[in-house]
Every structure is written in structure tokens, then in C-alpha cells.
Amino acid sequence: MKPYVIWSPDYRRISGGIRVLYLLGKLLRDRGLQAEMKMTHGAFVSNPWSVPECHRIPEDAIHIYPEIVQGNPSGSDQVVWWLLNRADKQGLKFVWHPNIGKHPVLNVPYLEPDIFKPGTGARSGVLVWVGKGSRGYVPDGAIEITHQWPASRKELAEVLQSAEYLISFDGYTAIVHEATLCGCPVVVIEQDGWEVSHLLSSPMKIYGAVDCVSKLDIARTEVGKSYQAYLDYFPTMAEQLDLFIEQTQTL
Q1: How far is Cα 233 from Cα 236, in angstroms, rounded to an integer?
Q2: Local structure of 165: helix, strand or coil
Q3: What mean pLDDT do residues 243-250 have?
Q4: DSSP per residue over 100-144, as a string?
Q5: Could you say which of 65, 133, 163, 206 would form a disulfide bridge with 69 (CB–CB 3.0 to 4.6 Å)?
Q6: Which of the 8 DSSP states describes residue 215?
Q7: pTM beyond 0.85, yes or no
């Protein structure tokens, strides 16, 4: 079987896009395949799955590019694009979400269900996440989640398990899904190109997010479905990875 080289920035726990690139490496290695990381920029740092850095690219390597890669830095004709967002790329493509393009979908289980799960205690307080969005109105007393706080993913889950709801100014962020898995409703403030319907039109359905504070009651009613929907989707993700391996190995 041909080995894989996955092109990615340095690992950052707060970036869902980067996390899934490294996780794909781990899943390929779990299948007995060789998979290593090649830095697009930044220095290689350790990652939770111990996927190693690629120091010497095998001649028969299959190169996995996310959409942030410009051109064809490997110079190889064995390239597959994994589009986590919209981009105009030529060649074999897999997409994270069907709205990105009419190509095979490849999702990976990027959130840990043993960490991000519904809380059992009382909820109070409002959380805020700005991310790649633009800050708007924030209620008095709301607490902002940042790249530095909480310090770990377990601590983030604990915060989400105890909050009344989360306001996100970024619709394209893993924290929306993380929050709903923890039973925390989410209000996504309007962002160009983002619609609530995207969360339910994806094969990996996300319940409990709305686009206006006035709809919070709807989010509270629906959010309890999100965790089980995520667990139910695991077999589908395994089938998607089977197809990815099958098609890329023919390059």
C-alpha cells in the first residue's frame, strides 16, 4: 500500500481544521498504513495521536492537501485534496461538508465523546466565542472563551457542561459542535455564507444551534439530540474512510 503524506500547519488544539488533519493521520495508521505530517508552515510539534513528522518523502507517497495549500508543493501527480472549506482545486477531491462541493464526503470523529458529553448539573452564565468572526453585542457578565482559556479540552468541556448557552460570532468553528455535545445551546451571530440549515444538512447532524437569541427555546429543546446523533454517525465515518483509502490508492 502506498504511504500518505498529510500537509498541515503545526498542531494547535484550538483549531478544528488542523486537528482533523492530524487525526486523519492517526486513523490511517490505525489501518496499518504509513502516514506522516509535512508542515505547510510552522515547526512540527507533538500531537495527541503521536503522528510523526515526515522527514523524507517516499517516492510513491500520496499527498493529502487541505484547501489552504497553494499550488502543488510536492510536485507529485499523486495528490488528493481534502477540502474543509470552499476552494477551487483541480484533481481528486473529498469534502468535509456536502455544501462545499459535489464530491465524496470524508468526516473523521474529531471530537472526543468521552470528554464532550452532556452535563448533569445546573446551568448558569453565558459564554462567548469570537474566533474568526467579528465581535458584536455581548451580554453583561458573559465569559469569553479564548485560545488560552480554558487551558485543556477537558476543562473546555466542563465549562460548556455548566453554561446556560454559548454565543458564537464564528459559525465555522468546532466549538459549536463541542457545545451542543455538552448539552449547551448555541446562538451563532449572523456570518456571511453561514446558515443554521447547514448544521442539519450535513451527514454529521448538529442539533441545538440557532441564529438569534430569541430562538433559544428552540435550541434548548433540540440540543439533547446532538450527542446521540454524533455517536450514531461513527459507522458512516468508517465507511467514508474506506472509500477514501480505496480511491486514493489508485492514484
Answers
A1: 5
A2: strand
A3: 99
A4: G-SS-B-----S-TTTS----S----EEEE-TTS------TT-EE
A5: 65
A6: G
A7: yes
